[in-house]
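Problem: given the chain below (133 residues), write out its structure.
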Amino acid sequence: MNKIKQNTHLLASEKLIGSVVSIEKNKATVSLRITKEMSVDKFSLAHGSFTFGLADYAAMVAINEPTVVLGKAEVKFTKPVIVNDKLTAIAQISEGVKGSKIPVSVKVNNAKNELVFEGVFTCFVLEKHILEK
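Solution.
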C-alpha cells in the first residue's frame, strides 16, 4: 500500500490536537495523550475541547486538502476523558461523496477501546485558503 502524504494542517500542534498515525483514502487515524495541563479539576477531568480538537483534526486529515475548513459539527461526548488517557480518533468519509461539502464521521476511543466521543463534521474544501485575499 502506498503511503499517503499529509497535505493539510501541517503546523498543527501534536501536544494540543494530536499526531497523525495513518492516512488512507477517505480515512485518517490521529492520537492524543491527555496531559495535566488539559485538566480542569481535582479529579483530572480533561476539558472537552481537546477531544473535540483531536476529532476535528482527524476529519481534516481524512479529507487531506490544504484548503479544508470546518463548517458544522454534530457531536456527542459519551464518556469522561481524564489525564493520561491516550485517545485515538478515526475519521471516515463515506464512499461516493463528491463536491466541496463533505460529511466526515469521527469516533474517538480511549486506551481501553471505550467510545468517548462521536460525531459528524461537515467540512468544506474551498478554492483558496480562507484567509487568502
